[in-house]
UniProtKB/TrEMBL annotation:
Annotated GO MF terms: FMN binding; oxidoreductase activity
Secretion signal, residue range per the UniProt entry: none
Keyword Flavoprotein applies: yes
Cofactor dependence: FMN
PANTHER family associated with the record: CHROMATE REDUCTASE, NAD(P)H-DEPENDENT FMN REDUCTASE LOT6
Gene Ontology CC terms: cytosol
Keywords from the UniProt entry: Flavoprotein, FMN
Residue ranges occupied by any NADPH-dependent FMN reductase-like domain in the UniProt entry: 3-147
Protein name from the UniProt record: NAD(P)H-dependent oxidoreductase
Keyword Repeat listed: no
InterPro entries attached to this UniProt entry: Flavoprotein-like_sf, FMN_Rdtase-like_dom, NAD(P)H-dep_reductase
Length: 182
């Protein structure tokens, strides 16, 4: 039986290094793990008036998350926090009140940045949000990738053996976490 992972990449950029990191992780995962990238670019900006009659795109987002066994967030850091486009998607999926689509799912947060802090602050903010939304986020290992040169290519191939081993260690822990809690 396959295990479905809903992947949130917090960048809309075509050449996103976080999208590359997500692809690298997917390559290292066992075959029974399937990954669906959740579309967060076509969503409206959340407005509490939606709650009376939720827009179709928002309902679709919620269904995609609810159908997943687990979550993976791969996010850049924007101004020491979470990109707005990702926070918007999370806000939408958390509502209407009482229908939080994330509740009880296992998940993990990782990220890559061109800065030396490797998205540490963005991830810390995201962990806070996800704790409130009742997501069981893997504690360790933390994955703060300082992206240099062509560390990961557009298809998720990793250029550096040390990074490959490190990410394999993360994937092994994540798979065990999802199997335990899923
Ligand atoms: C950044 N970047 C950035 N990097 C960082 O390490 N800490 C930060 O606070 C920020 N802030 C920030 C704000 C905004 C608006 C932008 C556009 C960028 C740089 C960031 O790491 C870099 O652009 C990455 O390439 C973004 O990830 P993606 O889009 O390649 O996945």
């Amino acid at each position: 039986m396959s295990t479905k992972i809903a992947v949130f990449v917090g960048s809309l950029r075509k050449e996103s290094i976080n999208k590359r990191l997500a692809l690298a992780v997917e390559r290292l995962a066992p075959k029974e793990f399937t990954f669906e990238h959740v579309a967060i670019d076509g969503l409206p900006l959340y407005n509490q008036d939606f709650d009376a009659d939720y827009p179709l795109a928002c309902k679709h987002l919620k269904q995609t998350i609810e159908a997943a066994d687990a979550l993976l967030f791969v996010t850049p850091e924007y101004n020491r926090s979470i990109p707005g486009v990702l926070k918007n998607a999370i806000d939408i999926a958390s509502r209407p009140w009482g229908t939080n689509s994330f509740a009880g799912k296992p998940g993990a947060v990782i990220g890559a940045s061109i800065g030396s802090t490797g998205t540490a602050l963005s991830q810390q903010h995201l962990r806070n949000v996800l704790a409130y939304l009742d997501v069981a986020v893997l504690g360790q290992p933390e994955v703060f990738i300082h992206f240099k040169d062509e560390l990961i290519d557009g298809e998720g191939h990793i250029a550096n053996e040390g990074t490959q081993k490190f990410l394999q260690g993360f994937v092994d822990k994540y798979v065990a976490w999802v199997k335990r809690l899923g």
